[in-house]
Amino acid sequence: MVSRVLRQNDAKGKELVYIIYQTKDAQGKDLGAAVESTTNGFGGDLKVLVGFNPEGKILGYTILETAETPGLGAKADKWFQKGGKGNIIGKDPKEPLDVKPVKGGKGDVDAITASTITTRAFLLAVNNAYKAYKITPVDSQTGATKREKEVKQ
Question: Computed from CA positions of residues 77, 78, 79, 82, in that sequence, does the dihedral angle turn out positive or negative?
């Protein structure tokens, strides 16, 4: 596994940091990546780890850090999973994910009831993770990410 740190500034000048964990099989074939992405939710930072296949479809996610309201925004850990009301698994965020048109949304993801801010923050973290994954250069000979730091396991 190879990791790379990507740093960018958002529209307000805040530094955004992404850690991309590129994976490949024993033959060197790209298996996709997991990307750490952090946004500002209702209660503070919302950090997620999102897995993508080589085509960019979402394989799964884990919430690494959250300060969202218990019982409301904290539902994000299950809400967007397979079987959840806002399922994003298998979606391709090439067209950014957004909430269904309830209050200005234009997407196809159900918002967490009474937690639109958390939902939008979560989807922004996923969309940003996808962008970071897609702009990560891959070495055409080995399939490995050009890296800043190698992680040994």
Answer: positive
Written as six digits, the tokens of 62 are 């884990």
Q: How many Å is the Cα radius of gyration of the chain?
A: 16
Per residue in 67-94, pLDDT (tens digit) is 877 777 788 889 999 988 999 999 999 9
In the chain, at which residue ranges do the beta strands (DSSP E only) sit?
Answer: 2-9, 15-24, 30-40, 45-52, 58-65, 149-150
3 state SS of 76: helix
From CA 38, how far away is CA 63, in angstroms rounded? 10
**For 82, what's the count of Cα atoms within 13 Å in the CB-facing half-sphere?**
5
Which pairs from 51-54 meet CB under 8 Å and 24+ separation? 52/129, 52/130, 52/133, 54/30
pLDDT digits (tens, 9 = 90+) for 96-146: 999 987 666 678 899 998 888 899 999 999 999 999 999 876 543 334 444
